């Protein structure tokens, strides 16, 4: 007799109620603060990022702790629901951003992309490692892990946040600009390097770092890209050819979402970050012969109007600014913030000037790549889980992530106002505009 598996218990009624309230409140406040930020000439992403901080322990948890604890209880099971929604939102956001990547521009300016990527990586990475070797021992989770902490801080300072950058460029209508394409491409390479380095640090934390582990991680990255090009591209093209022939947009939207999710899962299974897989999926969907852009207009609307604000709002819920009451933590945080901003900006700016970008184009590169956002928050959470960071250093890293994401848009906007459009950008803008027009039903 075959024993049947016990049915899985459904989600508790109270847990479901809290989840629905949390999502509703987060989205409502994110929309309001996003619109308010736009009233002050800032992208909506600024207000959306501040939402989680206001509802988290830093403000609501202090002013009305009973309300904050009731609405956002600290139980892991409740937070995991929001985390799952946030991960779903971010992979779709990055997938939509991948649709805008112009591979022809990147191939034509491969030298510029590579130089900007290296400039934006090496200087902040070096400054982060040096800072980690010099910070007070009180900021270390374990005094015998200073070298590991230094490398971890270097990676955290070198990373750029593709999701936040993508949302910022979209809000500011800069995705079609050449500089916007360079920023997104360099940020993607920055993140790929950061996740590779993070896997190495994780190996150091849980086991001995060996040449085999390094080679295995690098091989997985290469295999993923090769498989996406040789297997994923023809499969996606064939599926989208069928979807384009349908009388409604539903199949195209569904296949696009499935493609992004499966590529994210494949990348995550290989030890890469899920958002890297989502970006690759978006690029494949946007290649010639893929989906008709107008058919993904409904997906783009939902992602940018609902899922992206939820993702950005939920990112700040774990931030606790009370740790900055300690003068040592405050001073260390300010030093790390200044070095992180200067390292990324100067590295990208100098690389831009070396590749014959104008002054304002180089400023835009430095400003755009400075946004670290939730990618650095995810890295901080990994460091906390591995015991590399303590509460104080976790707060510092998250603070850098949030402040750089808030600082980047105004700097980028000021620079882009001084850069003239060209004919290729106008054509790219016209093509991308199809993503926000109502598709014609055949």
Automatic annotation (TrEMBL):
It holds the Pfam family Na_H_Exchanger. Residues 28-411 form the Cation/H+ exchanger transmembrane domain. One of its GO terms (molecular function) is antiporter activity. The keyword Transmembrane applies. Signal peptide: none annotated. GO terms for biological process: proton transmembrane transport. It is found in: Membrane. The chain crosses the membrane at residues 12-33, 40-64, 84-101, 113-141, 147-170, 182-202, 214-236, 248-268, 274-291, 298-317, 329-351, 392-413. It is a multi-pass membrane protein. Keywords: Ion transport, Membrane, Transmembrane, Transmembrane helix, Transport. One of its GO terms (cellular component) is membrane. This is Kef-type K+ transport system, membrane component KefB. It comes from Micromonospora carbonacea.
